[in-house]
Amino acid sequence: MRRVGLVVNPVAGKDIRRLVAWGSVFGNREKVNTLIRFFQGFVGVTRGAFCFVYMPDPYELVEVARKEATFPPRICFEKAPTPAFGDATDTLLFTEWAVQEGKVEALVVFGGDGTNRVVAKKSGSTPLFSLSCGTNNVFADTLEPTLGGMALGFFLEGGVPEAEVLSRSKVLRCFSGTREDIALVDVVFVEKDVLGTRAVWEPETVRFVAVTQSSPANIGLSAVIGRMVSISPKERRGAFARIGQSGQRVPVPLAPGLVREMGVEELGFLLPGEPLRLPQGKGALALDGEREILVHPHEEWWICLEDQGPVKADLRRILELTQGRSGEHGQRGHHAQTRPYDGRRGHQ
After folding, report:
1. Residues paired with 255 in a beta bridge
2. pTM over 0.85
3. Is the confidence at residue 171, as pLDDT, over 80?
4. For 223-256, how does the pLDDT look when each residue is reduced to its tens digit (9 = 90+)?
5. Which residue stretches belong to region Disordered (predicted)?
6. pLDDT band at residue 342 using 50, 70 and 90 as cut-offs
7. What are the structural domains, with CATH classification, of the chain?
8. What ranges make up the beta strands (E) of the chain?
């Protein structure tokens, strides 16, 4: 039986940006509904036997979805033998186990950029099918879960060439001595030497932003650069900006309903393999929207863009390539014959 790993982050979409901005809470009830829609989409286009190996969580979200929905006998579920502490350790340990011992062919991730960042540390060459349910969703795909399930099903049934729908993502590796970490979307230096609630929403503390990709349609700290230049996920470059009171004033959507002006003193580009030193001083590094690393005044931190990050599936491309395909046999179906509308109602 073929196996698929499943990560559902119970705390995604619930951080302090719901209090300091106007973000809506992505509650556990909605996560269960999202899961059910995803599974129904998957079942609707597959005929083989599959086992979803899922990460345990304190709220038992997958168990609730299993009880509320009906599944054919060919679909089974298995809880991974990994702990449920209720923090990022759960995701890290599960991903490592799923890839090395669980023998999964793909990893489905329900979470935001922060959740996907943790998965990416251990996912290796296993493709990620990332569906958003967090606050910052630049890496994760914002797509109706039913369609996400269909895309996974088409992929596993061999309906699309892997070379056309799978690609290595860019990452920003930050390092100082023996300490290092990665970000999928952005690295931010803030002059605030506490991790606290982790999310960054105070623009006056931000001194530096680096991104792997940017778009004026994104929200979060990467939007500092997105308001000035667009960089696609597939381009072999990133960008950085030094932030201060002088320079070009840019309106930045930091969080849902929270727009603040920030001064961009310098804008530059990053190429793979070329390290760049970060500002020195006491503060913290935020990775994909959350403060993760405390920086001491004597430390020297660097970042480097790399283009051999996690393998990510292009869900929309899978759906495009399978247009007109029969769900039962994986073949292209027959299209009904049509004729131009002549202005008369009814069948002739």
Report:
1. 258
2. yes
3. yes
4. 999 999 999 999 999 999 999 988 899 999 988 8
5. 323-348
6. very low
7. 2-169+310-321 (3.40.50), 171-306 (2.60.200.30)
8. 2-8, 50-54, 75-79, 107-111, 128-132, 166-168, 171-176, 179-183, 186-190, 206-211, 238-255, 258-270, 276-277, 283-287, 290-295, 302-306, 311-313
